[in-house]
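Exercise (ungraded).
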Amino acid sequence: MKSLHEKIVKEGKVLSDTVLKVDSFLNHQIDPSLMKQIGDEFASRFADAGITKILTIESSGIAPAMMAGLNLGVPVIFARKRKSVTLKDNLFTSSVHSFTKNETNDISVSKEFINEDDVVLIIDDFLANGQAVLGLTDILDQAGATLAGVGIVIEKGFQSGGKMIRNSGIRVESLAIISSLKNGEVEFLEEVTVS
Amino acid sequence: MKSLHEKIVKEGKVLSDTVLKVDSFLNHQIDPSLMKQIGDEFASRFADAGITKILTIESSGIAPAMMAGLNLGVPVIFARKRKSVTLKDNLFTSSVHSFTKNETNDISVSKEFINEDDVVLIIDDFLANGQAVLGLTDILDQAGATLAGVGIVIEKGFQSGGKMIRNSGIRVESLAIISSLKNGEVEFLEEVTVS
């Protein structure tokens, strides 16, 4: 997705060979217009998949998921990393290990909102080791829902998550796939095509 | 805002005299179409305020803030409740006490994204005791930015936050103001008018 590639090149900060900081448009400050384009692109790619719900995880997945949900006309559910006063019973729960933060969190989704009739699109901001997606698919398995596929804003193609998930037969659509962050430079896996 | 009032009456669950659960469209599952209407309403009310940035707080503020930002054509920043690998230095920080969760969190915003030239609209999902808004205004004070006002999706009018913030001279626009949750019933402060 050309506008996303350009934004990453222009504003992304390479902090190390594995860490890309995109706090200016995705993870802290958010660019609503770009999120709209991203949501529309996910909606276009999964237009014929019969999606009934979108599932993401707080916090950075919410903006792109919301814009895709607006386009597709379906509700968005964000898995919570912490239980709250109003969300503590009747939950699907899974564990997600974050290598970046070096911690394991339980994520939870209310049983009220996903069931075996749902066809679900998972959306997240980053795909690296794939642990968040695994946790979300585990929740869908518990619910007996159908997974239509996974939409990712930025995939770190040099880490193992994308391969692992695709090898398990799941459709993954990543709008930008980074092949390398070495020498402080962002390199993309695919050719940049005009979208 | 009529569609919001109707949604609250139809789907809100009164858990106690002070707790309203709106997990089906705002705090866990999100209704993107309603969020779009909410964002457009905030944008309309603050259309002439010269807004340059919207500031919210993760996670439930992100969806309405995003839609307002899309309409106004300005970036959205969400204050983080936890420091992350890519967000740990060069921060404005304030403390926010949550009476609902009975805990105090530091919230942080990168100094990169708000400065003294900014005119900022604060958006949040709920206004109860006003602690989150106080923390966000404290951050704006640290940045030397101008506060245009506060946009709230649901205000608990029977709690003290709205009065405290309005009394300090800040413009507060709440799209639904609840006067009482007693006897398991939602009562609104104002007449429901067709928007």
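Further reading is listed at the end of the chapter. For now, observe: The CA atoms of residues 66 and 76 of chain A lie 6 Å apart. The radius of gyration of chain A is 16 Å.
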